[in-house]
């Protein structure tokens, strides 16, 4: 701006006593630079139900540390070790982390539009002018040496660049929430996979115990058949029952192997590296109690996907202002300066070798046949779509919490019933075997009792896994399993640089 004061136009302003007019013009420019066209963004009011339909309005709000590391309540060291590996080595999380860093770098490019673009250049030309063309230079053959720079600076009068930066910052926040959501998903999937793995291990152990029990029944039937006090039918039925139970083992081993392979992918490792971490069978963690106090619906605001949808809405909303700014003049300040000389390098940097040009440039699209207004309409409709997605995401969040609560409570009720049934079935097996040995009942009752006990024990182990999975699902649905990272601090630092 200082160089502009030496142009003839500025001297004329001072000579004609028009300084006040010039000051007024500058004041108007600064006022316009503080304005931004387009609607200012306001976060939509988050509409939530009055209460949870699953009678969970009594649940205690988790402690912040428990909320971010809800798995600590299990007290399971192998599980916590899996989390440490997954956070450091999961490839999906790494990819999303790099995507976030890419957005941060792009935000830096957008912020740079506030400042002038200055390029330096130099050229050396050997040339010959046409003798058929009149020229002020007598010598037709000469060398031209030029060293200088070029300036281009868009003056952000009506906030076009500010709106672009507003949108770019929101896009970084979208990527940040996507990264947080990847952590929520990773922790939940590792925990769920681990619970399923332990559940299948428990089912394999139960199956092995039932196979031993049924081997005893088969031996009992054979002994009685050999003694001539039981028909061969009892032996065949016992053998059939045993074979059916043994056939369940390969299926369970397949499921166990598949769960191991899935966990290996989540941990970013090969199965052979993960198996030693899980080979030692452990009991399923005890299902934590959720005391009945209060579980505020506001916890849904912790969900990164809800926050991401809101930030995507903000990013899209800012583009309306970018398009509206195109309705008005775009003022830029181009310029150039160079030292130029002919033939001799010594003359290149003399004072009178300086050549320059600088001055404001105005570009105003006066006739575009509705293109800009059509573009504004497009951005406005896209903003409405983004708001609809945001509100839809809130509904999905409420649904997922309600589903998890229903599964959590009902699986507890089912576990109570199954535990009572398993205890009764174990007693029934002992009783019916005593009656069979005493000749007071037939062998079919023994087989039915053993089969019923096996199915109920398997169902109980499965239901315990389902209940634990529902507990994990509840925290996942509430957005648990993440906390602010260094990326958030980096974004705040980048924003403060401009502000």
CATH topology of the largest domain: Outer membrane efflux proteins (OEP)
- How far from one another are the termini? 22 Å
User: Could you say which overall geometry the principal axes of the C-alpha atoms support?
Assistant: elongated
Can you identify the CATH class of the largest domain?
A: Mainly Alpha
Radius of gyration: 38 Å
Name the features.
single chain; 499 residues; alpha+beta; Outer membrane efflux proteins (OEP); four-stranded antiparallel beta sheet; 12 helices; 62% helix; disordered N terminus
Any overview of this molecule?
The protein has 499 residues and is of the alpha+beta class. The chain has three domains: 1-34; 40-115 and 159-328 and 370-498, Outer membrane efflux proteins (OEP), CATH 1.20.1600; 117-152 and 330-363, Outer membrane efflux proteins (OEP) (Single Sheet). The protein has helices spanning 8-15, 19-33, 64-68, 77-89, 91-111, 160-226, 232-267, 271-278, 304-325, 371-437, 443-477, 486-498, and strands at residues 117-128, 141-152, 154-155, 330-332, 335-342, 354-358, 361-363. The strands form two sheets. It has a four-stranded antiparallel sheet with strand order 1-2-5-6, with no helix packed on it. A three-stranded antiparallel sheet has the order 3-4-7, with no helix packed on it. The two termini are 22 Å apart. Residues 1-17 have low confidence and may be disordered.
């Amino acid at each position: 701006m200082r160089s502009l004061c030496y142009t003839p136009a500025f001297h004329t302003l001072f000579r004609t006593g028009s300084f006040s007019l010039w000051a007024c013009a500058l004041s108007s420019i600064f006022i316009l630079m503080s304005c931004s066209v387009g609607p200012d963004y306001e976060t939509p009011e988050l509409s939530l139900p009055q209460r949870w339909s699953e009678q969970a309005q009594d649940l205690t709000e988790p402690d912040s540390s428990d909320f971010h590391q809800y798995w600590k309540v299990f007290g399971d060291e192998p599980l916590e070790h899996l989390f440490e590996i997954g956070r450091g080595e999961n490839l999906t999380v790494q990819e999303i982390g790099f995507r976030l860093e890419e957005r941060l770098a792009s935000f830096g490019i957008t912020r740079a539009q506030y400042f002038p673009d200055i390029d330096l250049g130099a050229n050396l030309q050997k040339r010959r002018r046409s003798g058929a063309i009149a020229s002020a230079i007598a010598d037709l053959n000469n060398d031209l040496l030029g060293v200088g720079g070029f300036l281009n600076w868009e003056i952000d009068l009506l906030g076009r660049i500010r709106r672009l930066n507003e949108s770019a910052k929101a896009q970084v926040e979208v990527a940040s929430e996507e990264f947080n959501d990847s952590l929520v998903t990773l922790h939940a999937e590792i925990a769920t996979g681990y619970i399923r793995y332990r559940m299948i291990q428990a089912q394999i152990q139960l199956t092995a115990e039932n196979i031993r029990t049924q081997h005893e029944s088969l031996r009992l039937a054979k002994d009685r058949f050999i003694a001539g006090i039981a028909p061969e039918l009892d032996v065949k039925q016992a053998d059939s029952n045993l074979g059916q139970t043994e056939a369940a083992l390969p299926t369970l081993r397949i499921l166990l192997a598949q769960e191991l392979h899935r966990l290996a992918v989540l941990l970013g490792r090969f199965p052979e590296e993960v198996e030693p971490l899980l080979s030692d069978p452990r009991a399923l963690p005890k299902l934590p109690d959720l005391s009945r106090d209060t579980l505020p619906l506001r916890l849904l605001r912790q969900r990164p996907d809800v926050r991401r949808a809101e930030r995507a809405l903000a990013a899209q909303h800012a583009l309306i202002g970018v398009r509206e700014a195109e309705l008005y003049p775009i003022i830029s300040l181009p310029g150039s300066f160079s030292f130029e000389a002919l033939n001799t390098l010594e003359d290149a940097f003399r004072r009178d070798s300086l050549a320059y040009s600088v001055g404001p440039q105005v570009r105003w699209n006066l006739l575009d046949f509705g293109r800009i207004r059509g573009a504004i309409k497009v951005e406005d409709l896209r903003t409405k779509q983004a708001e609809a997605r945001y509100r839809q995401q809130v509904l999905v969040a409420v649904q997922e919490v309600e589903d998890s609560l229903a599964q959590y409570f009902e699986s507890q009720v089912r576990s109570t019933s199954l535990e009572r049934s398993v205890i009764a079935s174990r007693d029934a097996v002992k009783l019916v075997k005593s009656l069979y040995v005493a000749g007071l009942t037939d062998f079919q009752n023994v087989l039915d009792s053993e089969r019923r006990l096996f199915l109920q024990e398997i169902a109980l182990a499965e239901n315990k896994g389902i209940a634990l999975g529902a507990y994990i699902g509840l925290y996942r649905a509430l957005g648990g399993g993440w906390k602010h990272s260094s990326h958030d601090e980096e974004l705040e630092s980048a924003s403060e640089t401009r502000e």
